[in-house]
Amino acid sequence: MSRLASTGLAFFVFSAMVAALYAVFLYAPTEGQMGLVQRIFYFHVSSAICSLVAFSLVFLASIQYLRRREERWDRLAVASAELGVIFALIVLITGPLWARPIWGVFWRWEPRLTFMLITFLMYVAYLMVRAYAAGSVEQTRRFAAVLGIVAFVNVPLVHFSVNLWSADQQLHPQKVELAPEMVVARYVSLVAVGSLFLFLLKRRMELELASQTLNRIRQELDGERGDDGP
Amino acid sequence: MEQSSNLTYLFAAYTAFWAVLFGYVLHLMSRQKDLNQSIEEMRKLASEIRRGQL
Amino acid sequence: MIKGVVAILWKDLRVEWRSRERLGPMVVFVFLIILVFNFSFELGGSALHEIGPGVLWSAFVFAGLFGLNHTFATELDNNCLDALMLAPVSHSSLYLAKMLGNLLFLLVVELLSLPFFCLFFNLSPGLYLVPLVAVLTLGASCLASVGTLFAAMSSNSRLREFLLPLLVLPMIYPALIWAVKATAIVFEHSRPSTTGAFWPGSLTEPVSFLLVYSIVFTTLALMLFDQVLED
Question: What are the pLDDT digits (tens) for C124-176?
């Protein structure tokens, strides 16, 4: 059943992606002012939404882990954090590539860019805590959960501060007027990127489950051998 | 002219999108491979233990 | 609760008084970093209003990280942390004591290094120093609130001392932005012609942000510290 669902989801992701690529490159009209490069918008914004959703999932899963101490919440947290970082990285790469022809430079210390960069760095630190932990597995999970909560509380504060810090650099449009075809392309892209995100999230959680199980078996075996040995 | 140089950036952005995700999937696959290897080792260990007991 | 906090804080202060492992190096460090900026940017006294606040806060943040690393490292070296956790004080009291200790050390370092800073940037003392001390205190409490929580976590990592800056710096950026802004406002009002204004009105906004930031993260850390120190 789970295998069937997995294949079904993969098939859905694939068809949604084909539809999205069609909508982005062929269906949606070329934007008047920015030209072709505006077509970056569809996947850029969808990835940004996915990364912020991922960071909220880290937050919720961290709270649940600390309350219930169930491994599945930790699996959700680590998988979301990794994918959040991956999608934030995509946003940080596609953003400058869009900015170069339009703003004339790759990078501006513009509020939303700065916000994404700082948020990205916080979750890179989160992954580092997990990767370089020296204590018990259980302790690492607790530390990660604490960090997952603290970092997410900081997200609105970063947003607020960065807006003050470079208010005169605000270049992202506050409100976007889109042609109806563009709106369609935007939502189709969001569904495609979002389902890809969910698909990868699921796979990453399954991988984590396998490695958790393996570690537990290894510990049990070590314990048995320790008892038998001299 | 303006449009064609634009095309380069559009191409680069979508390439980057797929490259990052592809790299991530490769990373996941290598982790999966490590995991399978450990499972295989453990299976061998288990059969050795069983043979020792028999 | 208060008794436990005071007891641990007093212990830490006495340890520091005997060993002088933290304050001395931190002050020298701040001094050296200010010189690093001076040489890398070839600063003159006129640069004060442009980059002075940034130099001051960069120096404090780096020296602060240096001090924060000591928070739990010394306890771990001699397995004192286990003893501390056996002591009849709650984990939140332990956090509060360590956080106040860090705040105190930072504050002393800031106050001791301020004269050098004023000397190098040709600032003459005046009434503006009073709001400046308020800004320094709040900025230091932001750093201490987040830093103390993370210090407990980073002491148990393979990266050891190196993890702390990776954790603290991205977290502290919002507070840094407002602290630098507040300090810039204070320095703007340090010129003799404007000494009349004791508390510039534009200072209220950044100062309240720093207050909110430190309260939010101190509260959060108090709620979560049990989870960090469990076992």
Answer: 777 778 889 999 999 999 999 999 999 988 887 888 788 999 999 999 999 99
Question: Counting one residue from A and one from B, how many pairs have CB atoms under 8 Å apart?
Answer: 74
User: Could you tell me the residue ranges of all domains in chain C?
Assistant: 2-229
- Enclosing domain of residue B28: 19-54
pLDDT for A229: 44
Here the tokens at position A66 are 């600390």
Query: Given this model, what pLDDT does residue A86 score?
Result: 97
Contact: C220, A149; criterion CB under 8 Å = yes
**What is the amino acid identity at position C224?**
L
Tokens of C65: 């990280």
The residues of A whose Cβ lies within 8 A of any Cβ of C are: 66, 118, 121-122, 124-125, 128-129, 132-136, 139, 142-143, 145-147, 149-151, 153-154, 157-158, 160-162, 164-165
Q: Provide the number of structural domains found in chain B.
A: 1
Rounded to 10 degrees, what is the CA torsion of C119, C115, C15, A129? -70
Best interface-test mutation with B: which of A94, A102, A225 has the largest number of B CBs within 10 A? A94
Backbone angles phi, psi at A116, to 5 degrees: -65, -40
The confidence band for A230, taking pLDDT boundaries of 50, 70 and 90, is very low
